[in-house]
Amino acid sequence: MVVLEYILIAVLIIAAFVIIAAVLLQKSNEDGLSGTIAGGSETFYGKDKSSHTDRTLFKWTVIASIVFAVAVLVVYIIQPDYSQGFSLEDWTNEYLNNYSDIVDKIGK
Question: Whole-model pTM above 0.70?
Answer without folding.
Answer: no
